[in-house]
Model the fold of this input.
Amino acid sequence: MPTSKKELRIQYKNLRKALSFDEIEEKSLAIANQLIQMPIWDKIYYHVFLPIEEHKEINTEFVLHLLSGKDKEILFSKSDFESRKMTHFLLTDNTKIKKNEYNIPEPVDGIEVPSSKVEVVFVPLLAYDVLGNRIGYGKGFYDKFLSECKPEAIKIGLSFFEPVNQIDDVFESDIKLDFCVTPEKVYQF
Done:
């Protein structure tokens, strides 16, 4: 079994590639349905990623419907690839979304909200382990962002797949998840 970040990235990118559009929709809806049961709905500010469809990421549209139905403040980010920093914007009726050069859908501009306000973060990932360590694409955007959030901010990974037993090359600076939600179940770390 591969256990290094590099090997797991390759394996999980291939697993996602194998999913059909219908499977992605079905599994994304199942993940949103799992979220309904979680004790996270007493907060105000929720940060959601918008999926890179070309990478077959989880469709977070269902999560957005859930949040807007519960009248929550929804935040999206814009990534600066030079500074590796994310700027967060409030979703409003006027928010315009545009794909950047990496096909990441991002808000064009809007009302900026600091990381310290974020109470719940839905975290994209490629793979994760039973201890709550996650692997993203390796750019470090989310580790940097999560380190700027309050320590009590709830970090929830969303994954189509079950956890691996262990990721070998975890760094001190890697921030662990509190939960990971799959179509079948919720893992708590």
About this structure: Residues 21-36 form the longest helix (16 residues). The mean pLDDT is 93. The longest strand covers residues 73-80. The radius of gyration is 16 Å.
